[in-house]
């Protein structure tokens, strides 16, 4: 099934309403996140992410988790959802986004993230 990315709609989410596939990731990695979003096609949640807002001194948001249902992987949904997360971070005056995870390395590198020596990835926004 080809995905028209115009079908994807982003919504604020409540952790209690996440489908099990996403709630496990949220329990494991995003319990203290203050930004939680899901992507839906029609009424089905197909992807989501959680971030923690920027805090001094680095002013970078932390992408706690990002996940896509297996049936929707490798169709650009993850890239689209990651782009949404980056847009949210930038619109809230973040200087960049950092992840704690070292996998999937290829996914983050294709988005422009740089590997960090202590693990994870970082993408800094260019100042205007």
Can you characterise this structure?
- The structure is a single chain.
- Strand 6 and strand 7 form a beta hairpin.
- A seven-stranded mixed beta sheet has the order 1-2-3-4-5-7-6.
- It has helices at 20-29, 77-91, 105-110; strands at 8-12, 35-41, 44-52, 60-68, 96-99, 114-115, 121-124.
- With 128 residues, the protein is α+β, with helices and mostly antiparallel strands.
- It contains three helices and seven strands; from the N terminus they run βαβββαβαββ.
- The protein has a single domain, classed as Aminopeptidase, CATH 3.40.630.30.
- The protein is globular and about 35 Å long.
- The longest helix is centred in the middle third of the chain and has 15 residues, at 77-91.
- Helix content is 24%, strand content 31%.
In a few lines, what is going on in this structure?
The protein has 128 residues and is an alpha+beta fold. The chain is built from 3 helices and 7 strands; from the N terminus they run E-H-E-E-E-H-E-H-E-E.
């Amino acid at each position: 099934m080809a995905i028209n990315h115009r079908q994807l709609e982003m919504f604020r989410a409540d952790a209690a309403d996440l489908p099990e596939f996403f709630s496990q990731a949220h329990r494991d990695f995003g319990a203290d996140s203050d930004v939680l979003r899901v992507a839906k096609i029609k009424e089905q949640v197909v992807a989501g992410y959680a971030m923690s807002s920027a805090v001094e001194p680095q002013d970078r948001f932390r992408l706690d988790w990002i996940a896509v249902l297996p049936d929707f992987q490798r169709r650009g949904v993850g890239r689209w959802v990651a782009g949404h997360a980056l847009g949210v971070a930038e619109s809230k005056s973040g200087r960049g986004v950092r992840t704690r995870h070292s996998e999937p390395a290829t996914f983050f590198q294709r988005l422009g993230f740089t590997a960090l020596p202590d693990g994870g990835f970082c993408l800094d926004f260019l100042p205007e």
